[in-house]
Amino acid sequence: MRTLTPMSDVVVIHTDGGCTPNPGPGGWGAVLRYGEHARELFGGEPTETTNNRMELTAPIMALETLSRPCVVHIYTDSTYVRGGITGWLAGWKRNGWKTSAKQPVKNVDLWQRLEAACERHEVEWFWVKGHAGVADNELADELATRGMQAAMAEAARG
Q1: pTM of the entire structure?
Q2: pLDDT of the chain along its 158 residues, tens only?
Q3: How far apart are CA 107 and CA 75, in angstroms?
Q4: What angle do CA 130, 114, 62 make, to 5 degrees?
């Protein structure tokens, strides 16, 4: 039987990622909240990447930032991330990291890293509609944009 955890004991994370163009330089962002504490994270990839890779990178970086095992609620506007981690991952692993169509799973390196990052914690995943006025989702989007802009500037410097 699962015990209920008070919300004050839950780390709430909102994540986002993207790139322009897709593929192209990308950025990711995450907002972590624990009680009254908040932390903003962002970064980018100046070489060619994809929206999906940046969407995966955001929760990885957020989870890897946590210094001890926690109960975590992760909110993402990516059905790819939520569907993959809560549903498809088990089948991919069972099939030797192949899809149901027998094709190699894309971004397998990040899926494996995300799975490992989740193992330390008790993680629940939630989907939230993007650009719908959810304050921390909007902030995660702004942070991802900041990471993408820094990546584009780095790419332009060569």
Answers
A1: 0.93
A2: 445 555 558 999 999 999 989 999 999 999 999 999 999 999 999 999 999 999 999 999 999 999 999 999 999 999 999 999 999 999 999 999 999 899 999 999 999 999 999 999 999 999 999 888 899 999 999 999 999 999 999 988 87
A3: 20
A4: 60
Q: Find the catalytic residue in 24, 43, 77, 136.
A: 77
Q: Is 9 a catalytic residue?
A: no
Q: Is 55 annotated as a binding residue?
A: yes
Look at residue 93 and tell me if it is in a domain: yes
87 tagged catalytic: no
Residue 3 CB contacts under 8 Å (≥ 6 apart), including other chains: none
Give the residue numbers spanning the domain of 56.
10-156
CATH classification at residue 27? 3.30.420.10
Number of structural domains in the chain: 1
Task: Give a yes or no: residue 46 inside a domain.
Answer: yes
Considering only the C-alpha atoms of the chain, give the largest distance between any 2 of them, rounded to a whole number of Å: 55
**Residue 26 annotated among the catalytic residues of the structure:** no
